[in-house]
């Protein structure tokens, strides 16, 4: 697969979870490709790749190419304000409470972040008046796991025993519901997918 280096140039990308491990790598790639980025994450840890790159001056927190915001997806009013001001061309949603062990210790926080925070994001984008592609990054843990050692496929049954897996499976259902309920009009400007 060949990378189209011109596609991302000057595209306005709203990237949630940009301070996580995968989010940091995506941030670096998108900056290299010339995207204008608004990064939206609740926090970043001192021992993270993101923090290391800031200390090493590989990236700076705010400049002409991107803006770093430490905000919570559960703050619906702030999220709406940022989306309205930034007017993204593309939204890549990677923010989540993604640690299975933490999901057992903080199940309501996990459900709130992974489901309600994500729905807040969809709601903030849906009613904008600019064409926008939206990709919610998910996990293979959304599928019912019967420990058969098989590779999951897109059409496998959704499931999830732990709060993390179940919250991400619920988000898959919620995204499909949102798409069918609000994004089927001919004049719809939002293209929404999970990956």
Can you put this structure into words, describing what you see?
This protein is of the alpha/beta class and 195 residues long. It is built from six helices and six strands, in the order E-H-E-H-E-H-E-H-H-E-H-E. The protein has helices at 21-32, 49-55, 76-86, 100-105, 107-126, 163-182, and strands at 12-16, 36-41, 66-70, 90-93, 132-136, 190-194. The protein has a six-stranded parallel β-sheet with strand order 3-2-1-4-5-6, with helices on both faces. Strand 5, helix 6 (163-182) and strand 6 form a beta-alpha-beta unit. Helix 3 (76-86) runs parallel beside helix 5 and helix 5 runs parallel beside helix 6 (163-182). The longest helix has 20 residues, at 107-126. It starts with 11 loop residues before the first strand and ends with a strand. The mean pLDDT is 88.
- For the largest beta sheet, what order do the strands appear in spatially? 3-2-1-4-5-6
Continuous helix count: 6
* Spatial gap, N to C terminus: 17 Å
> Segments where pLDDT lies below 50 for 5+ residues?
none
Instruction: Characterize the overall form.
Output: globular
User: What would you call the structural class?
Assistant: alpha/beta
What does the average pLDDT come to?
Answer: 88
Radius of gyration: 17 Å
SSE string, helices as H and strands as E: EHEHEHEHHEHE
- What fraction, in percent, of the residue positions are helical? 25-40%
Strand count, sense and closure of the main sheet?
Answer: 6 strands, parallel
Please give the number of β-strands: 6
Give the strand content: 15-25%
């Amino acid at each position: 697969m060949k990378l189209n280096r011109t596609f991302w140039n000057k595209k306005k990308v709203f990237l949630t979870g940009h301070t996580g491990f995968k989010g940091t790598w995506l941030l670096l790639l998108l900056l290299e490709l010339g995207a204008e980025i608004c990064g939206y994450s609740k926090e970043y840890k001192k021992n993270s790749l993101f923090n290391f790159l800031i200390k090493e001056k590989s990236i700076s927190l705010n400049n002409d190419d991107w803006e770093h915001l430490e905000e919570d997806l559960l703050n619906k009013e702030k999220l709406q304000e940022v989306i309205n001001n930034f007017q993204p061309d593309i939204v890549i949603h990677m923010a989540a409470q993604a640690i299975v062990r933490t999901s057992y210790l903080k199940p309501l926080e996990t459900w709130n972040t992974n489901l309600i925070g994500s729905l807040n994001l969809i709601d903030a984008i849906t009613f904008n008046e600019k064409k926008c592609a939206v990709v919610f990054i998910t996990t293979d843990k959304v599928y019912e796991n019967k420990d058969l050692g098989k590779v999951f496929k897109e059409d496998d049954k959704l499931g999830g025993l732990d709060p993390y897996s179940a919250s991400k499976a619920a988000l898959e259902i919620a995204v499909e519901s949102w798409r069918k309920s609000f994004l089927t009009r001919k004049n719809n400007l939002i293209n929404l997918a999970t990956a």
